[in-house]
Amino acid sequence: MKPLPKEFDILAIERRWQKLWEDWGIYRFDWNDYSRPTFSIDTPPPYPSGEFHMGNVLNWTYFDIVARYKRMRGYNVFFPQGWDCHGLGIEVQVEREHNIRKRDLPPDKFRSLCMQLVEKYIAMMKEGIIRLGCSVDWTTEYRTMNPDYWRRTQLSFIILYKKGYIYQGTHPVNWCPRCETAIADAEVDYGEREGKLHYIRFPLEGGGGHLLIATTRPEFIPACVAVAVNPVDTRYNQYIGKRIKVPLVNRSVEIIQDDAVDPSFGTGVVMICTYGDKEDVRTVKRHNLPVITILTENGLINENGGKYEGLTVEEAKKAIVEDLKAAGLLEKIETIRQEIGVCNRCETPIEILERKQWFMKTRILTDRVEKEAHEIVWYPDYMKYRLIDWARSLDWDWVISRQRVFATPIPIWYCKSCGETIVADESWVPIDPKLEKPRIEACPKCRCRDFIPETDVLDTWMDSSITCAVHAGWPDRQDWRRLFPADLHPSGVDIIRTWAYYLMVRHLALFDEKPYKSCLINGMVLGADGRKMSKSLKNYVATPEVLEKHGADAARQWAAAGGATGSDIPFRWPDVEYGRRFLTKLWNAARFVSTQLQDYKPSGEHKFELQLLDRWILSKAEKLTGRVSEAFEKCQFNIAVEEVRNFAWHVFCDQYIEAVKDRLYKPELYGEAKRKAAQHTLYTVLYRIIQLLAPITPHITEEIYQHMYAEHVGKKSIHITPWPEADPAKIDEEAEKAGDLLAALIAEIRRDKAEKRKPLNASIKLVRVYAENAEHAKIIEKNREDVAGTCKISKLEVLPQKSEGEGRQVPQYPELSFTAQYD
Ligand SMILES: [Zn+2]
Ligand SMILES: [Zn+2]
Question: How many angstroms is it from 351 CA to the middle of ligand 1?
Fold first, then answer.
């Protein structure tokens, strides 16, 4: 065996292996292999933002560890990678970059600008995934913006339509006036802002004074359809059923009673407008009130706003407040904190608008979602409640249509004369109804031959919420159920309400089956200051900076070790630097071992006599294997990485290697069979360490494997070697007990040397060990060569008695102490 080179350029090593792995194709799923069990990962296709940020690093490290572990466990691992291209985010970005709005360009031009941007962003993110060393099967790569993927999205739409899950209806929806599209509940972010509470006098009809109404949205006065009070509020219940005049507009509305009115908010009298907020939607529905729409789709006041027509919401608010003041109807204005919803792509406050939309019936699935959530294995378990609580909180069905351009077309036409809805046949997809007519002669109802295409498009979540089936090969592969449901769905804690939820309802509706068997959740990455990492907070760290400075194996250790699975993890440079130092320590240890193994043949033809410390560390390595395997099985990556690092650094390097050096260097003193035993132990334990580490630090372990083990083991890569089973027969409790004692004594003698400022290789004239416990004395006596050799002791005396006076006590062994005399 040749010694490892002293030169150790981790960045170059990582690059080289990333390329070779791909050239060798060792991470490809073998579709023709029916002998091994399969393990499929529902890799989330990321939304191309152009940045593979540290949150992605955390997420991808988690499931790449699982993929690598399962592969070594003998599974035929399916680890696909796609890109969730469509959506508002890219459109907003294109509008900003080119300083245009979507309607300034023909749709196909706008769409091609979006595709260019997406390709640029994908290239950047793909580089990040490769650079992190993820064992993705790149032959599976797909893009949801390609017609071949549309086909699947459209097919799923048609199936759900036929099953009655999809309907068209006029319901209030969240509307972004800037993006000019409906958005789903999951796309609304809520935040606190300062608002103004206006106290406005509404005159009672027929005289008798007025009621004071407090509202943050006076601009909605033209859309006021009722005034409501709580029936238990004795200040107002005598007015219930009477009529009241709406200021500035020449009409009156009824004063109604409603339990939902909070008597302690404002004055306890509220105006119901269509629609000032979600509560209005509920009230209008309960009381069957009329709807007066006053907003256009781009957020301007429409003709129902009378003299305020054409103003923006903000302008209308100002004008109405001025008019109220002039009319003497504004009593006062108070500043309050209020929670408002904003578009999560452009941060514009959302409005509620009624417009014909396509919906998917999702609320009828809520009980089923809850049931399945309990059957799925969650890492960690409590995360299932995020899914259940979200499903339970939804007021509305999922609005799946969008009034945008860059998205999958809805495969629908309408008959020009009778309005009949024509849904594409399953065999027509992919199809864009704006470019193609339906493939029928005439309208089945009225025989008209002219059709109007649906111009709305699908929510991007309609693309990405069928990945479990699509990854498995649906609908093209006969055997797609072989990989369905996915074994593992990984998700960030922040997207359980979207990704995990939409996947669940889509697949339940389509196939009546849950889409994934387990769910692996990662927390958020925090800045070093403990706050959410963000560019504006100046605690932001860019991924390329981390990877270029310390490499992927160090960054992956940070991700794995940072905290319990599911918890938020701060990014701290010292954690990455520690990971880097560990790699150097491991490399140096492997290099030392390789220099000592030049005459060693792993085939087992050497005669060797295992010594106590050999048996001690071999036994510890077996127990370690058991603990690390269990941690990987439970997705407890922090436990796995700390176990191996501590063992490698403190047990293997600091204790074992130091203790056997003398035996390796002086066979004439110890005998060849004992040197061979040390060689065998070094070879075996180092291999165990790099195998257990391989899922976490794939590059350095591969490099060491290729230099030292590949030839003998016979597998092309460490990542396809079989995972070591903890062998109970190799566990030797007695050797561990005795070895711990020796290791503690040696460590304490070395500490004594260090404290006396002697170099570690300095010799000690005399060490007198006092072992009150006869058992201890026997162990030390039997292994005196190791103790004396490791600590360079010229004369070692072992006395089975209490120390006389000032002996140095060995920690954790109160009956053991020693004195040392230096030259
Ligand atoms: Zn928006
Ligand atoms: Zn017709």
Answer: 11
What's the gap in Å between 178 CA and the centre of ligand 1? 5
* Among the listed residues 663, 686, 661, the one whose alpha carbon sits nearest the alpha carbon of residue 760: 661
Q: Please give the distance, rounded to the nearest whole angstrom, from the Cα atom of residue 262 to the centre of ligand 1.
A: 31
Q: How confident is the model at residue 378 (pLDDT cuts 50, 70, 90)?
A: very high
Q: Measure 735 CA to ligand 1 centroid, in angstroms.
A: 67
By the CB criterion, residues less than 5 angstroms from ion ligand 1 are 176, 178-179, 343, 345-346, 348
The residue type of 810 is V
Check if the beta carbon of residue 156 is closer than 8 Å to that of residue 466: yes
Give whole-number Cα distances, 787 to 112, 448, 619, 739, 813, in Å: 74, 99, 20, 11, 16
Nearest Cα neighbor of 814 from 782, 771, 761, 777 is: 771
* Bridge pairing between strands 251-257 and 243-246: antiparallel
Give me the residue label for tokens 């919803």.
Answer: 341
742's tokens = 């020796």
Centre of ligand 1 from the C-alpha of residue 141, in Å: 30
CB 497 within 8 A of CB 362: no
Ligand that comes closest to the CA of residue 189? 1
CA of 360 to the centre of ligand 2 (A): 25
Instruction: Give the whole-angstrom CA distance, residue 165 versus residue 161.
Output: 6
Quote the ligand 1 centre to 108 CA distance (angstroms): 21
φ, ψ for residue 274, nearest 5 deg: -115, 100
Residue 347 C-alpha to ligand 2 middle, in angstroms? 42
Contact in structure between 626 and 35 (CB atoms under 8 Å): no
**Which segment of 94-108, 400-414, 504-518 scores lowest on mean pLDDT?**
94-108
Ligand nearest to the CA of 449: 2
Report residue 555 as tokens: 């960054």
Number of H helices, E strands in the chain: 25, 29
Counting ligands in written order, the one closest to the CA of 443 is 2
Ligand nearest the Cα of residue 89 is 1
Mean pLDDT of all residues in 379-401: 95
Q: Which numbered ligand comes closest to the C-alpha of 180?
A: 1
What does the alpha-carbon distance between residue 225 and residue 758 come to, in Å, rounded to a whole number?
A: 90
Distance CA 638, CA 111 (A): 44
Q: What is the pLDDT of residue 536?
A: 77
Q: Give the pair of three-digit tokens for residue 422.
A: 């024509």
Let me know how long the chain is: 823
Q: Which ligand is nearest to the CA of 351?
A: 1
Q: List, for residues 522-544, the tens digit of each pLDDT value.
A: 999 999 888 888 777 788 899 99
Residues forming beta bridges with residue 228, ordered by sequence position: 256, 270
Q: What is the pTM of this model?
A: 0.89
Residues 6+ apart with CB under 8 A from 125: 46, 48, 49, 50, 51, 52, 56, 83
Model pLDDT for residues 131-156, shown as the tens digit of each residue: 999 999 999 999 999 999 999 999 99
User: What is the predicted pLDDT for the residue at 358?
Assistant: 97
Closest ligand, as measured to the CA of 182: 1
| Residue in 423, 416, 417 with CA at minimum distance from that of residue 451 | 416
Looking at residue 786, its pLDDT comes to 87
Q: Cα of 404 to ligand 1 centre, how many Å? A: 11
Question: Residue 196 to residues 193, 217, 221, 334: CA-CA distances in angstroms?
Answer: 10, 8, 15, 6
Ligand minimally distant from the alpha carbon of residue 418 = 2
pLDDT tens digit sequence for 432-466? 999 999 999 999 999 999 999 999 999 999 999 99
Structure tokens at 411: 């495969």
Distance CA 77, CA 60 (A): 15
Tell me the mean pLDDT in the region 726-755. Answer: 94
The two beta strands, 76-78 and 38-40, are parallel
Ligand nearest to the CA of 442: 2
The residues near 724 (Cβ < 8 Å, ≥ 6 apart) are: 625, 688, 691, 692
Write down the residue that tokens 């360009």 correspond to.
Answer: 105
Q: Which of 490, 486, 508 shows the shortest CA–CA distance to 499? A: 490
pLDDT at 529: 85
